[in-house]
Design goal:
about 450 residues, alpha+beta, five-stranded mixed beta sheet, three-stranded antiparallel beta sheet
Length: about 450
Amino acid sequence: MTTRAQTTSSPGGRELPAVEGGLPVIGHAAPFVRDPVGFLLRAHSRQGEAVTFSLPGRRVASFCGPRANAAVLGLDDSEADRRPVYEPLVTPLLGPGVVFNVPEDVRTWHDSLLLPHLRRDALARHAPVMFDQVERYIAPWRASGTFELMAVMHDLTTHITAHCLIGPRFGRTLGPALPALMNQLESAFFMSFVIGSRALLPHHRRADRARETLTRAIKEIAPRDRPEGAERSHFEELMSAVGPDGRSLDEDTAAALMLGWLFAAASTPVHAAWAGVLLLQHPQWLPVLRAEQEAAFTDYPPTTLSPLHELERLDHCLLEAERLHPAVWLLARTAARDLCVHGYRVPRGHMLCVSAGASHRLPGVFRDPGTFDPDRYLPGRMEHGNTPYALIGFSGGRHPCLGMTFAQQMMKVIWSVLLRAFDLELADPDVREARTAMRHRPRQPCTVRYRRRNR
């Protein structure tokens, strides 16, 4: 594998091959927006692991494949800076003073404030809460009926995340308004990325109103929202923390941080929905997963993490959903100086990107890459483990997803409950991607028929 010293040596290397075509001003924006993963796969299949193309106002250096992924994701922010890409997108959504709108040492401190809620002991406390939230959600459902898959996954993941990371009263108080408000925030993301600025479009105005409503609700509810058995609320813990400059958070910054925790979970419903689509398109896996549950859950709902760890086949199905339909299909940075990355010259100011959506479908890495095949993760085959950075749906390298284990546990709980409670089938098995968002969710409506099972 290319070492970091080789990757980021003094500028030199080969010229990046340019993608053909493109128009004045907008460059390759039209085919990129229409089908970004297809665009990148075609470009890399013709010209190799590294290519360059243009979007409005920027030049993009795109890398694809495990070794190229490792080279880009191994760069630190002094070389490949995330701030110029994401700060203009995230700050208007969450407000100033958090994420990329603060110095690096403060951002590291802010991240550390979330970590206590993601450790193993915290995950063990979250597990019964997650089961309870899903069971409560499905309790009013009739003996049979239909539901919209993406909407249900969004509702469940938003309420579970709010309950575990903010407090039990917050989600209950906002009720159905909480997922709707988060949807309005998320809707302002993709167009800003493509056009390079935050346009004054209706979805941005709705996002502004949603942020104000959510921030106000967090400040009103969260300070007294103590989890059962806890002496202090998570908000009170934030307010008592001391930063690297010796100062504590004010309530606006604490509320913005909590809103950021909710927003960071926005990828999880997409991943969970695609897992459901793939399972229902391949129903031969449903008896396998139910048998695994029966063996693991001697008590239901489980009160420890051990039974969840025994759901290896469900793990494999979730990995395959991550591979085929990564919720975050593009990871981008800006070259902070002239670089040599994976043997190619990348001038200062170029956007650097790797695409999980493209890398996960390379036939040289995955056998029959377009096929849903959870067996590829079995011992002895382990296609994702044979080559580091083959799967990057949760990023990796210098900046892996902090909430990966939390998200995986949440998805396992959701599908454990649904498969135990219902017989399920897709109303239309031909489910397409909706390519109008930063996260490529199943095109809606994605209707699922359900019938209650005897439990």
